């Protein structure tokens, strides 16, 4: 059973941490105590992990013919022939069934969002759609899982409201930044453009320069939408913007390192300095939600200079 557990990638469940900001923000916006939803939070996380694993299972099975060109992924169980189609598809359906069954216990909007999560995984991997093969669309379609996770976290607390569009777009662009840095790190690691194109079709059109420019574009988009959200909903949070700028710059630094850890973002927590800083920034943001700084309203009230 180990190969089938391996292709479900339980070590990637760490990515579902992106669900928690949605839960925290919904709790703040609706002034809901955690005692009222902690049970749904646990069920929701388990549901999301199951759906994510279903997406990974189908990903590994279909990608086996391409992963054989990757220096490390060529050792995956699917590439080595340790799994068979019959049991892979059964595992895929079983994980979807578990995920959807758990999602029903949370709420109907949560279940619908989980279905969308699974559909995006299908479109990303399966022909004739297979968006992962299409240049630029590969990053955009994969990173949409970030706002989906945010919405999942939000619907654990409430479904009478939806997250602000500026937050969703900022989260999406932030995910696209992370994904383009991952693409850049993978492209450099493989080293040979012709081999890289066999591993991932979109690499036939990318270059190191285009991937860096793309990541810069997404970082700017994320900062813009994040700024809109902070100014509109909580002016005190503007003070955290330099902290987010450092976070983006630090991740870029990790991405351009030789054999970059950005190739495996699910293991980025092993970069202790980066992890500690992320926790510190989360604490700062939490404090800014709790602290009132009336003086900052001056920047909104005096946004225009008038002539006497």
Automatic annotation (TrEMBL):
The chain crosses the membrane at residues 12-30, 36-58, 79-100, 106-126, 146-162, 205-231, 237-254, 274-291. One of its GO terms (molecular function) is transferase activity, transferring alkyl or aryl (other than methyl) groups. Keywords: Membrane, Transmembrane, Transmembrane helix. It comes from the Bacteria. InterPro entries: UbiA_prenyltransferase (IPR000537), UbiA_sf (IPR044878). One of its GO terms (cellular component) is membrane. It is a multi-pass membrane protein. Pfam families: UbiA. Coiled coil: none annotated. CDD domains: PT_UbiA_2. It is found in: Membrane. This is UbiA prenyltransferase family protein.
